[in-house]
Amino acid sequence: MASVASPAIFKEFCPLYYLLNAIPTKIQKGFRSIVVYLTALDTNGDYIAVGSSIGMLYLYCRHLNQMKKYNFEGRCESITFVKLLSCFDDLVAVGTASGRVAVFQLVSSLPGRNKQLRRFDVTGIHKSSITALAWSPNGMKLFSGDDKGKIVYSALDLDQGLCNSSLVLEEPSSIVQLDYNQKVLLVSTLQRTLLFYTEEKSVNQVGSQPRK
């Protein structure tokens, strides 16, 4: 007897006007009018995070239908990558065109959760545009990659408010993707894909031929 095919589900896709209307298309800086470009995006069940060319992170809470804004102090520079994580606390990592990386620990209204916005900075290692970010599932580890091939590991202690960072790997070409699970970091560059075993500090290349 032939199996009965499951019914097709049709979905309508449309622009998120409620989100886009909350982000300005231009800002005024002195006598100049600067166009705002949307440069990075990440989503999960709780938030939609949008990075911009003016260094502003727009974070939309899907449950409360509220938009909040976060930025870096100092000069305005384009945000190149954002990565959300929901664990015990809600976290968002942000990378910029000059190599700055920041982690925002978000405020939660739930009992026992974080009640004050905190920011952690990864400083002094990346000198070029951030191209990839990856969290560990518990939010205690963040890996960041840039377009010069550097990969930085940041150990976060949210209770103590500490962030310790170190260079763990350096590739000859730009990092294009990072993913972390079970002490193994998947790294893709413009030239190759590899598995980096964080405990042994060893590398296992996927495939034998470089990318063309």
From TrEMBL:
Transmembrane segments: none annotated. It comes from the Eukaryota. Gene3D superfamilies: YVTN repeat-like/Quinoprotein amine dehydrogenase. Pfam families: WD40. Coiled coil: none annotated. GO terms for biological process: protein exit from endoplasmic reticulum. One of its GO terms (cellular component) is cytoplasm. This is TCPR2 protein. It comes from Struthidea cinerea.
